[in-house]
Input
Amino acid sequence: MEIDSDKLQSRVKVLQTTPKEQGIDLTAADVIVAAGRGIKNKKDLALVKELAGLMHAQFAGTRPLVEAGWVDPRQQIGLSGRTVSPKLIITVGISGSVQFVAGMKGRQLSSRLITIKNAGIFNVAHFAIMATCMKSCPG
Output
């Protein structure tokens, strides 16, 4: 059976194209600084973002900060966010929920700055610093 080649040609005409906005790619980041629920206000969040900038790291956050509208959803690590495997991840104010930890299974080295004694994040951190880093943090 032969098919007429004219019938194989598309009749779709492209009228316009719009380039897709370059997004945030946490999956390719070597260093990530992530903030969690322990960050109580936007002023303190700005300090975490500044730290990320000084380290030439990608900034990321947890679901509660995304839901609060403080963090772009493309910057979320966890089951409902991105899975990352950076060489170093520094977390600030993250207790270590199962959902968050599942999003960073491939990390090579992880460090935590937290204020909660017996937090689950201690079970997955290579090293941790327990400290009150900001006046608004509990501790």
User: Anything to note?
Assistant: The two ends are 78 Å apart (CA to CA). The chain has one domain: 27-130. Residues 36 and 62 are 5 Å apart (CA to CA).
